[in-house]
Amino acid sequence: MTADAAGAVRDGFRRVHGGSPEGVWAAPGRVNLIGEHTDYNDGFALPMALPQAVVLAARRRGDGLLRLHSAQGGAATAELRVADLAPGATAGWARYPAGVVWALRERGLAVGGADVYLDSTVPAGAGLSSSAALECAVAVAYDGLYGLGLARPELARAAQHAENAYAGVPCGVMDQMASVCCTGGHALHLDSRSLEVRQVPFGLGGHGLRLLVLDTRVRHDLADGAYAALRAGCERAAGLLGLPALRDLDGAGLPSALAALPGELVPLVRHVVTENARVDRAVAELAAGRPEALGPLLTEGHASLRDDYGVSCAETDLAVAAAVAAGALGARMTGGGFGGSVIALVRAGEAAAVAGAVAEAFAAAGHAAPAVLEAVPSPGARRIG
């Protein structure tokens, strides 16, 4: 994150709100290496923060107004009364930052209004957690503005509560934990039950590797009911098995558990249990200095998301197949699914060829060319000015 980004939002703040902000904060998007749809099952994940981030400038107000302006939101400034914030009361993108302020107040914290100006480089709808980045940027800004002194997991929980209860998306906590807790050069081994984290070194350059993000440009809306149905199915399965969550089922107990479940729940449970195991294997390979061994785990994870969990789509399947055929060590969809992005682990010298092969496959299928960026493990949410 550069001084240019901080300066740009300061300038935007002065233009929209007048005067100077009290500070500038940033929170990144994330890419999840492995561990998809495990967080709301109390399981494990291995995300990393991206250089792409939400950057915001903010200043407290004493009149109870929350004034929100986004560089991506057109000329309008959303003006809300903090005392009137409630689920269902805010429409559009503003429900994410407004929801964080509401969630902090729900925790009994004495926070009031603010002038906020924000800009984002996280692609929306690409499975890179643009909403979590927005929520976490507001959370760390309010923590600084109002001197809350909240621990990082508390900020993540408040941001998650905003997305669950205010924006209506029943996500787990992985996106928000990644945005606030990641460190540069590392992936984050997250236990979604305890919120314990371990920073796992993830330096690809020294191994001659790169991680590409291929944005299929297929946009998803996780509030449309599909995500909620998956979560409800997992919770129903855990209840039928007498478990607090599917995290409590391991590979040894999987065959007997699957035999005891209704057929429609079997693939969901199989994915969650095997995906948790893939996280363990990925962490072990990285700890042993073998990042190239992640490749087969990525491809295996995609097959599970496609065949068992049913959250892939034709475009993400095509991107994975084309990347692997062109020499990628492995690839999979990342994020909640129903579109979004694919990650591909490639040898540095083959990155352009892999990206080109995916673009050619998309053109042949009549799809718009995917956007390509490189995933570089970056710092989490923080004050930058």
Specify Rg, calculated over alpha carbons: 21 Å
Q: Could you tell me how far the N terminus lies from the C terminus, measured between alpha carbons in angstroms?
A: 11 Å
Provide the helix percentage: 25-40%
Given the structure, what is the number of helices?
Answer: 11
Reading off the top of the CATH hierarchy, the class of the largest domain is best stated as: Alpha Beta
Low-confidence stretches: none
What is the ordering of alpha helices and beta strands? HEEEEHEHHHEEEHHHHHEEHEE
Please state the structural category. alpha+beta
Large-scale geometry? globular
> Biggest sheet: strands, sense, closure?
8 strands, mixed
- What's the CATH topology name of the largest domain? Ribosomal Protein S5, domain 2
Count of individual beta strands: 12
| CATH architecture label name of the largest domain | 2-Layer Sandwich
The pLDDT mean sits at: 96
Q: Indicate how many domains the architecture comprises.
A: 2
Topology:
Elements: H1 3-17, E1 23-34, E2 44-61, E3 65-70, E4 78-81, H2 95-106, E5 113-120, H3 130-145, H4 152-166, H5 174-181, E6 186-191, E7 197-201, E8 209-215, H6 226-240, H7 254-260, H8 266-287, H9 294-309, H10 314-325, E9 330-334, E10 341-347, H11 351-365, E11 371-374, E12 382-383
Parallel strand pairs: 3-5
Antiparallel strand pairs: 1-2, 1-12, 2-5, 2-6, 3-4, 6-7, 8-10, 8-11, 9-10
Describe the structure.
The structure is a single chain. This protein has 385 residues and is an alpha+beta fold. It has two domains: 3-200 and 378-383, Ribosomal Protein S5, domain 2 (2-Layer Sandwich), CATH 3.30.230.10; 202-374, Alpha-Beta Plaits. Helix content is 40%, strand content 22%. Strands 1, 2, 3, 4, 5, 6, 7 and 12 form an eight-stranded mixed β-sheet that branches. A four-stranded antiparallel β-sheet has the order 9-10-8-11. A hairpin with a 6-residue loop joins strand 9 and strand 10. Helix 3 (130-145) packs across helix 4 and helix 8 (266-287) packs antiparallel against helix 9. The radius of gyration is 21 Å and the shape is globular.
